[in-house]
Design brief:
This protein is an alpha/beta fold and 547 residues long. It has helices spanning 45-52, 57-68, 74-87, 92-100, 108-117, 130-137, 171-184, 203-206, 239-242, 246-266, 287-305, 324-334, 351-363, 383-388, 415-423, 428-432, 450-467, 477-486, 490-503, 523-530, 532-538, and strands at 27-30, 122-129, 146-154, 160-164, 191-195, 209-213, 227-229, 270-272, 277-279, 282-283, 312-318, 340-345, 368-373, 403-409, 442-445, 474-476, 510-511, 542-546. The chain folds into three domains: 27-242, Rossmann fold, CATH 3.40.50; 286-445, Rossmann fold; 449-546. 41% of the residues lie in helices and 16% in strands.
């Protein structure tokens, strides 16, 4: 039976508001400024740079007006802007300084991870500046298959030298979605575009589905938008438009999480963190996960301890927040007296830093473990794999100690898809061909489960207590339940644990749910009311914690 589409109410004009039909996107294309960044300023990145140089922001607006009225071309607009910026000696540092003031919208990671789980590729096509976008995103750039924006070129002393305008702005955004549809072999109407500004209104004419969020200089009655979220505070709000079954599945997932968390805590009487250790302070609650990760650690350790004359390199996939970096760092820490550990982060380290650290690997007189973190980062650059791949042969050399490379990434959802992502890039085939495709050398770190979050919470409680010279022996189960369901990352768990320990009176040895909240914080009662069945079932039960 064919499913009926739900009717949607309308706001002023013709664009329906925030109700969806049964549909799933084949790709999602985002604008950047004002769409993926926090609200709070009506300035664009360009206006922020003009102001940072001491210009009146209206000068920026006047050039935009001349372009929109057809008085100048996009290329001429870039050249006129270049003259102004060079006159004020704009440097790369100045551009990065502006970028540092820009924050991503709330729940960015949660939304992008969910879209990744849905198997929907994401893209950015923006009238902003590449250096700004890449700085704001950092290693989060790995979420996107492709990023298109205007490019700044710099002189040898990092002063602005050129501005190369993107061909994918204004009408070009419509061309982008048409080209993308051909590339993916899907209909243009299978692509969702999310934008907020006047330069985004051309996408609808190309045939894509369009979602207007936090509008600026564009309105829902322009017939350029299919759907409309007037005041989007969290990026998660777009998910029902990416997959119309998402809300239903989300409700089922939340109920499942609640039940798993309740079950994990009901029978928990004591948590000895040492029993959960894979190595050092890296812990997993599940026996199966722990056994698999101990096996992976043993294989890496064995390759360091026993010298072979073949390549001993590992490729590891893990989703963001699963502790993949910490897994390798803790393994290295437990071997600190016997090996050289060289970490490289491709989302952060420049080519010069990368080359310097690879030289340390080559010069090491001890067994060397080199971690290439975010190996799928810097997608728009050719140098990373070209610089790295030949070093993956170092272990074949006779007369030197072992050299083991561990490459870690988060693209694709599986280690196979990660390898395909790497292989598709410049020199990527040379990289992947130097890692034996086997269950011994290709591995996946499972995402954090409920029990894992309980372990992190307990460890952060003990660390926080030690830092302020308090002794904590027990945790209320409902407190742990709250931590598990509200904290999405280890960083959030740490913050909650630190605040809870600070609120515990001197001499007290138990952490209670109420310690998670400051005076007058009504979210305490809201959460308890929403989870009253679990609160009743767990009551005032506690479990003991120890290192």
């Amino acid at each position: 039976m064919r499913k009926k589409k739900r009717k949607t109410p309308t706001v002023t004009g013709d664009a329906p508001i925030a109700i969806v039909e049964y549909w799933k996107a084949k790709a999602v294309v985002f604008d950047f400024d004002g769409t993926l960044t926090k609200r709070g300023s009506t300035r664009t990145t360009w206006e922020a740079i003009w102001e940072s140089l001491g210009y009146d922001v209206n000068e920026c607006g006047l050039l935009a007006k001349r372009f929109l009225e057809g008085q100048i071309t996009h290329s001429e607009w870039c050249n006129l802007t270049l003259e102004k910026f060079k006159a004020k000696n704009l440097s790369l540092d100045g551009v990065i300084s502006v970028a540092r003031s820009i924050e991503l919208i709330q729940d960015f990671d949660q939304c992008m991870e969910e879209i990744q789980r849905l198997g929907v590729p994401t893209y950015i096509v923006s009238g902003s500046i590449w250096d700004v976008i890449s700085t704001v995103l950092g290693d989060r750039a790995q979420y996107f298959k492709r990023i298109e924006a205007n490019n700044f070129g710099y002189t040898n002393n990092n002063m602005l030298g050129t501005i190369t305008g993107t061909r994918f702005d204004f009408e070009g955004k419509g061309e982008f979605v048409k080209e993308l549809a051909k590339e993916l072999r899907v209909l243009v109407s299978d692509i969702l575009f999310v934008g907020n500004d006047i330069n985004d209104v051309y996408v609808k004419a190309a045939g894509a589905r369009t979602l207007l969020v936090n509008p600026q200089f564009t309105w829902p009655d322009q017939k350029a938008w299919d759907k409309y979220i007037p005041k989007m505070l969290s990026l998660v709000e777009i998910l029902p438009f990416v997959d119309s079954t998402w809300e239903e599945r989300q409700r089922a997932r939340i109920l499942g999480e609640r039940e798993r968390a309740r079950k994990a805590l009901t029978d928990l009487d004591e948590l000895r963190l040492a029993k959960m250790s894979v190595h050092g302070n890296y812990r997993r609650f599940s026996n199966e996960d722990r056994a698999n990760l101990v096996g992976l650690a043993d294989r890496i350790r064995g390759a360091l301890v026993t010298k072979s004359l073949t390549r001993e390199n590992f490729l590891i996939y893990a989703s963001p927040g699963s502790g993949k970096t910490f897994f390798v760092e803790e393994l290295a820490r437990t071997l600190a007296d016997t090996i050289t550990f060289v970490p490289i982060d491709l989302s952060r380290d420049s080519q010069a830093v990368c080359e310097e650290r690879l030289a340390e690997v080559a010069a090491s007189k001890r067994p060397c473990l080199c971690m290439i973190d975010e190996v799928d980062g810097r997608k728009g650059e050719e140098w990373p794999y070209d610089v790295i791949y030949k070093k993956l042969d170092l272990n074949e050399a006779r007369g030197r100690e072992s050299v083991v490379f561990v490459l870690i990434g988060s693209s694709g959802g599986t280690v196979t898809k990660l390898s395909e992502t790497i292989r598709s890039r410049y020199k990527g085939k040379d990289m992947i061909d130097r890692i034996l495709q086997s269950g011994q050398h290709w591995a996946q770190i499972p995402p954090m489960g409920m029990g894992d979050t309980v372990c992190v919470y307990a460890s952060k409680i003990l660390e926080a207590a030690e830092a302020v010279q308090k002794t904590i022996r027990e945790v209320e189960k409902f407190a742990a339940y709250h931590a598990v369901l509200t904290c999405r990352t280890p960083r959030q768990v740490k913050l909650l644990a630190d605040q809870a320990v600070m609120r515990i009176p001197a001499g007290h040895t138990q952490v209670y749910y109420d310690h998670h909240f400051g005076p007058g914080d009504n979210t305490n009662k809201v959460f308890r009311d929403q989870h009253s069945d679990v609160a009743l079932a767990l009551g005032k039960q506690t479990f003991r914690i120890s290192k």
